[in-house]
Amino acid sequence: MILTSTRQIIFLQSRWGISMRDSSNKRIALLIATMGSFLTPFMVSSLNIALPLIAEEFAMDAVLLGWVATSFLLAAAIFLVPFGRIADIYGRKKIFTCGILIYTFSSLLCAISTSSALLIFFRILQGTGSAMIFGTGVAILTSVFPPRERGKVLGLNVASVYSGLSLGPFFGGFLAQHFGWRSIFLVNVPLGLLILCLIFWKLEGEWAEARGESFDLTGSVIYSLTLIAIMYGFSLLPAGTGLWLIFAGALGVFAFVRWETGQKNPVLDINLFRRNRLFAFSNLAALINYSATFAVGFLLSLYLQYIRALSPQNAGLILVSQPAVQAVFSPLAGRLSDRIEPRAVASIGMVLTFLGLLLLTFLSERTPMEFILLSLILLGLGFALFSSPNTNAVMSSVERRFYGVASGILGTMRLIGQMLSMGIVMLIFAIYIGRVGIAPGNYPAFLGSVRVAFIIFALLCFVGIFASLARGNVR
After folding, report:
1. What's the pTM?
2. Predicted pLDDT of residue 323
3. What whole-number distance in Å separates Cα of residue 163 and Cα of residue 428?
């Protein structure tokens, strides 16, 4: 009897110890993934505030200034799906770690850039590291946490993204005004080093459900060249060269789909879109949502500093309202999507986003700040209600071995949407302002281009409401 009891106690202690280790590893995985998710949006929203200072130092015109943001997005979009697939095969923790290393080092290089060309090149390197982070972070969380906890955890992760967006305008404005724009890149270095320490010393295990499968290099090259042609073509419009590049990119999309359909282990499984309505329409909704919203911070940062003559710090205080609301309501939206159909919650979010964009179409040189704040709060609430449930719907619609690819595809939809958003803005700038700097003489043209951009974004978001409703139910 005593021996049996002792064995039972040892067995229970063993089980309890494993449970404790699993629970601790889940907490560490959540902490690392959310910190990684914080870095990129913090950088993006901080840098938006500093763009006028960068333009002044390097004498950049409006279109070239757009490339400071777009080069990062283009690199991240090119590599996100390939690295998601590589992570599924070789290990998500390995790729995530490499991403943090590259992102941290390239942040330092951006801070010491001596020309606009070098800054844009290092931003491309930074975007590559970001692709490794975002192509694996959500996939790691989905691997570690069971379905019943997934919505809550993804909500916390999205809240981390919005915390980065929230803190970015405030701290970016403060840093840019008092220490110069280079300090924005430098603050990312210690954050990256802290994440690396946690990975090497605390995070146990590896996740690679597609281990042993081959990597589709040819498909990845076609995919990358297609995105480059489309995005660079956008920046050259309305010139004929831009039209030809976009046409070549469209042919590349067709070639990519044809190639991937015939591959045993494709970099992007086209059948995920063909046979999975929920997956396809959730990604389409994400693409439309980001296309309609990403450039809002970019445009309002320029508007507040050029048209309203606010300092970088004060402009940041205005812009912080949108992501602050997102950060507060994202966890709630994630929990709601565990209980209510994600389609319903996300679609309500899309409606609120449309209303916020609609208000911004009335922007003028004397628009009350309270009106701008109301618009940003509506946008923040709408995006919070959309993003977490939409992520939950995407990740819940695929098998475990596709988590990395699904996370990469969703991230790619986000990045392509962000690129399209910036592409639309650069096209409008090229038509209304031309390749000159933003100065008092062209303020009326700049303000007109901002209003046109918001009209296009509001129309896009209106279409997105129907894409969100058409996805179907998770449960």
Report:
1. 0.75
2. 79
3. 30
431: alpha, beta or left, given left = phi > 0 and alpha = psi -120 to 50? alpha
Domain boundary pick from 228, 262, 296: 262
Task: Work out how many domains the chain is built from and give that number.
Answer: 2
pLDDT at 13: 39
Compute the distance between CA of residue 42 and CA of residue 38 in angstroms, rounded to an integer: 6
**Which stretches of the chain drop beneath a pLDDT of 50?**
1-20
Give the domain-ending residue among 208, 242, 262.
262
Question: How many helices and strands, by DSSP H and E, does the chain display?
Answer: 19, 0
**Residue 58 shares a structural domain with residue 169:** yes
CA 402 to chain centre: 20
- Cα 274 to the chain's mean position, in Å? 24
Structural domain span for residue 249: 217-262
Classify each residue of 435-452 as buried b or exposed e, where b means 16 or more C-beta atoms within 10 Å of its C-beta. Answer: eebbeeebeebbbebbbb
pLDDT in tens, 172-186: 888 888 899 999 999
- The answer on 112 and 238 residing in a single domain is no
Nearest in space to 449 (alpha carbons), one of 430, 435, 434, 428: 428
What span, in angstroms and rounded, lies between the C-alpha atoms of 78 and 87? 15
> For position 136, what pLDDT does the model report?
80
